[in-house]
Each structure stands twice: as structure tokens, then as C-alpha cells.
Amino acid sequence: MFDVIIAGCGPAGAMLAAELRLHDVRVLVLEKETEPVSAARIVGLHIRSIELMAMRGLLERILERGRQRPAGAYFAAIDKPAPENLDTAYAYLLGIPQPVIVDLLEAHAIERGAQVRHGAAVTGFEPDDDGVTVELAGGERLRSRYFVGCDGAHSTVRKLLGVGFPGEPARTETLMGEMGLAAPPAEITDRRVHLRPAGAGVYRVVVPAAGVSDRAEPPTLDDFRQRLRAIAGTDFGVHSPRWLSRFGDATRLADRYRVGRVLLAGDAAHIHPPLGGQGLNLGVQDAVNLGWKLAAEVRGWAPGTLLDTYHTERHPVAADVLDNTRAQTALGSPEPGARAARELLAELMDFDEVNRYLTEKISGIGIRYDFGPGPDLLGRRLPDVEVERGRLYDLLHRGRGLLLDRTGRLTAGGWSDRVDHLADRTAVLDVPGLLLRPDGHVAWIGDDQQDLEDHLARWFGKPS
Q: Structurally, how many domains does the chain consist of?
């Protein structure tokens, strides 16, 4: 019997498996595909996801396989530089092929001790009071205490669970890829066509497709040529594609992320157009939010409502992402009203406050969970600040909580098996002490030991 079975070994499933293994949870990941996806689409890791990779000691190996890009021009592809002095040590976007990031995260999970089975399609499951029986194609039945669906937009787990997936179906389809241009344009007059430099003579090309399909097959370079000629009057001599893909504008959000012992994460819980490049990041961040909470439940120290906070925290974040992609979609319309709104927003983004707000929204560093009244830092993630022992994130590799104490008087006491303690008067912070959850969000700020213990119990259960 496993502690947790995960359906789907994409970015969310692989990251969740690794997070669970940090706490010695017995994990099996079931991936229906036998081979990696063939489309080498480039995805972007945003600042918050890069921070999470640094928190788990993964960043160096990921940096070796990606390309760093400036952190600006996130929102609706409006070309503005990144705001100065973003509150992060990682103020860049990391472009990396999606199969590469999946392979890296899967290898990381396996190194941590997760089991991964390819060619294992889930066809059914039966929850009961003690666990979940998972059935595979071919009739094999497996048993686990919890079951998580990370099996994508067409999630079998979500459908069998009967969770609603309201939103809008796909109404348009778009081609997107990176390729060379023999005749780069001086100006694009049709707002439906987007050509942006992507380095070394390569351009990111976005153009409407002819219609809506099931997108079962990747597009060809000829598809791009035909659509560019039809809309722009020329194909710009496109050649030598790096990757080609198509996407629709379906936008949906699961009603619930948890039903008893079955949970949803990643695209199984939310889908939206890739505007702003937020999808993969949203799924990885789901996994890091869920991992330590589900592990706490398995290990027996979770407070009664801890696992439910996965939905209450992440569902609003996904709703916000869906809304900002709806807004970006509207701003990309060639209609006069949308064009006027886009021009107005471009003017407003010349104000640092507006540009900063939108950049923090898309990059994930503006997220603040509702932990109740308190300073603005409460509920936010803490950047990778300097501490006496180096960098803060180097202390979070094990996925434990962290008490950062600048007073020298605080203690984690009976929670020391779950929470590390760093007494450091030199830490670059303007608070006396704070408690970090394993996902790097600030759960408490202050200098009172009794108040600290109340919050330790809230997030980390009863003391040993």
C-alpha cells in the first residue's frame, strides 16, 4: 500500500512527488504515456517558480538547460522593461523546453525515492474511509491512502470524481512557435499577428489558426506560412523552427480541489490560454503548496484543517490567473475598443506602480494568502535574503518550516522535528522574528514566544 498515488507525471505531478518524498511519504506516480511528448515547446519559468527551484536546491541544474531573459513584457505582450529593484534575487524569466523541465523534475522525484510507472493509465478509483483503490487499464488495482489527479486538462480523475469544471469552452485557436524570419517586418499593422525577437535571429510568432480543433497533432511550418499569408499578406520567409504548437482559449476552473481523500492539482484543476506563460508555473506552485500539507496528513501531525487550506489558498490564485488571461485575450483583439484599451494600458504601464503591479501578478511574487490581520508581509513569500549562514533558500532544501529569530530569545521547542531554528541578528529583515512555512510563505511575525507557539500549533500541529 502506498501513502499517495499521483496520476500524471507532468510538472505538477513530478514536483508533488518530490515534495512528498522530502517527508518520507511512499509515493507512486502513474503516467499514461510511454514516451515523452514530442513537441519541444519552450515554456517560461517565472520568478516565483525560479525561487521555488532555489528553495529545493534544483536551480543550478535547471539553469544549465534554460535561457535567461529580461523579466519585462509579461502582460499582454506589451513591450515594457521590468520595474527596477524587484523584490527578488531572481529577476528574470527562464525559457526552457517543456520536455526538459518535466525530465528534470521527474529525475528529481526519483532521486528522492518516488516510484514512477510509464504506460500506466488510470481508468477508475474507489475512495473509502481508509484510502483509495486505483484501477489501471488492464485491471490492475492499487491501494493508497490518498490519490491526486495531476493528469491534465482532460483529467480522468476530475471527471470520475464528478467535480464541476465551469468556464468557457475554446472559441478560437492560435498557432505559436519560435523560428527564423528571412524578412523581419519593420512594423506589423494587423494586431492579430505577433512577431517578437527571441534571440539569435529567432522570432516568437503568434498567429490565429483557421479554426478550433482537438489539437491532437502539432502544427507544421506550412500551417504558419498559410496563416501568415492569409492575415499579413506575407509569410516573412519563416524557416528553421525551434518548436511549434497550437492552443485554444478554453478557460475553466474546478469547483473543488479536494473531495475527501482525492485531490486535484495543475491543469486538472484549471486551464486557460497561455498568455503571460502562467500555466506550468501555476501547477508547480500548486504542488509546493500541497506537498507539505498532504505529507503532514500522512505523517499524522497535521492540524485538522491544514489540508483544506490547499483549496482555500490556491483556488483564488487560479481564479485570478484565469481573469488576467481573459483580460489579456480581450486586449489582443483587433477591434477598435480593445485597441484603444491596449494603448491606454500601455501608457499607464509607464507608471512604475502599474508596471510593477502587473509584473508581480504574472510572475507570482505578488501572491498573498489570507492568514488573518497583520503586517503586509504576513501571508507573502519571503525573498531569498542574506542570512548569517549564506542565503535563506539554502536552509529550505529539506521542505521544513523555519523560525528566523533576530531576538535570540525565541525557540521552536516541541516542533523542532518539523521546524528548523535560525537565530541570526544580522538577517536583512526589519522584523524581530518570523515563521516560514515549507513553501516559503510567512506564517507569523513578532517576538512573543506564546504567540509564536499558537501559530506553530496552527500550521504544524501539536508539539512532540
A: 3
